[in-house]
Design brief:
With about 300 residues, this protein is an alpha+beta fold. It is about 35% helix and about 20% strand. The longest helix is centred in the last third of the chain and has 22 residues, at about 285-305.
Amino acid sequence: MNKITSIALIAGLFVGGSQVATAQEKSDNGLNPLSLRPVHDSNIAYKIGLWRRVDLREKQNQPLFSYENEITKHLIEGVKSGILDAYSEEDLEERLTLEEFNERMFKRFEGGGLSQAEIDAGFGDETASDDGWGDAGSSDDGWGDASDNTQEPEAKSTSSTSTTTAPQDGYEMFPNEFYILEIKEDWIFDRQRSRQYFDIQTITIKIPAEASNDGLEKTLASFKYKDLEQFFRNNPNAVWFNEENTAKHINLADAFELRLFHGRVVKKSNSLDKYLDEQYGSAQEALNKSQQIEYDLIEKEHNMWEY
């Protein structure tokens, strides 16, 4: 009798702790407001959070990143047109204004000023005033006294500098420069339907480290997947490119539904909120653990049928 009571008490504590941990993800009706097809809390037998890193340059992911039809292009256009809400981070606590979003997309040239290609082409060289008609070291315009025209060229030079310096500090990055997505999802086993679900919560566009202004990987914007699903379905151009049959491209919403992408697990929900490479100290160990998590999920689904 005592043993049964103890087991019941432990089970009650486990369930109660689970409810507290997930309360912030639920609305008052017991459903996750970020879920596309929410499962009621009372029907969830098991759930963990997963973060997947999707490299759009990988062969399996290239249909999401086809030429001039990149998924990032559609997301950026959605924000600029005011259709999509962009958030500063995956917690979705701060919505970005269009100005803030554009600022994040702006790539500054190293050290400011012109790009190396423009410098090599001869633009912006202020050390010489040669206009192609005479000696660069002289202010003589070839028509008479050099002093007669000193003021006017100087004024033009000042005006030219003031109107061209600002736009030469950088450029707005192109959609194909954003090739990293991070998908946050819940792995859920629904006891009522006796099946597993991958419930995507958010999709985040990352700025690659080599493209970032400070050399660190950063977030461009995060989006509610629930919003994206409807946005994709309303956009006939938002397609997963079918290389085998170009008459049968697939809408991006269906592509995510069918899991037509590869995303390596880089983080599993944990008390310290750390990524795998932070937990295990090396990229190799993190990769091994990522693969192990995938195997564990398959085994977990199989074992849940025994309950």
